[in-house]
Amino acid sequence: MSLAARRRIAVVALLMILFGCAEVVTAFRHKFFGISTSTAMIFTYAAAAIGGFYVAGGLLILILRKWAAALAIVLLVADVAGRIALVVAGLYPLNSIEQTFAIVVGTLIAIAFGIFIAMQWKILK
C-alpha cells in the first residue's frame, strides 16, 4: 500500500474520530455550534452510541485490514440508521434550516466515509 493511500485513510480515520467525539459531546450537552438536540434521556444515550460507532469505525480503519474495514462500514450504516431513527422519532428537532442542514450534511458525510472505505477495499490486506 502506498504512503499516499495510508495518509488518505489516516485523514478519514481522524475525521471520523473527531466527528464521533463531537457527536458524543453534543449528545450530553444538547448544543453544538448553535444546533440544539432533544434533552430526552433516550436521545442522549442513542446519540452517544452513534458517536461511539463513528469513533470505533475511525479506529478500525486504522488497522488497514479488510475485516476491520467491513466492521467500520457496518458501524457507519448503524450511524446513518440511528440518525434517521432519531429524526423519525422526533428526537432530533428539524425546526430550522440550520437543524435540518446539520442532520442532512452530517448524515451525508457518514455515507461518504462509508463509500470511501469501500473504495479502499482492494488495497487493504
Count, helices: 4
Taking pLDDT < 50 over at least 5 consecutive residues as the criterion, the unreliable ranges are: none
Label the structural class: mainly alpha
Considering DSSP H and I runs of 4 or more, what fraction of the residues is helical?
A: over 70%
Tell me the radius of gyration. Answer: 15 Å
Shape: elongated
Note the quaternary state here.
single chain
Count of distinct strands: 2
| Order of helix and strand elements from N to C terminus | HEEHHH
**Beta fraction of the residues?**
under 5%
Name the average pLDDT: 91
What does this molecule look like?
The longest helix is centred in the N-terminal third of the chain and has 27 residues. Helix content is 75%, strand content 3%. It is elongated. It has a two-stranded antiparallel sheet with strand order 1-2. With 125 residues, the chain is mainly α.
Layout of helices and strands:
Elements: H1 3-29, E1 31-32, E2 35-36, H2 41-61, H3 66-88, H4 97-119
Antiparallel strand pairs: 1-2
Helix pairs in contact: 1-2, 2-3, 3-4
Write a brief structural summary.
It contains 4 helices and 2 strands. The chain has a two-stranded antiparallel sheet. The chain is mostly helical.
Descriptors:
125 residues; mainly alpha; elongated
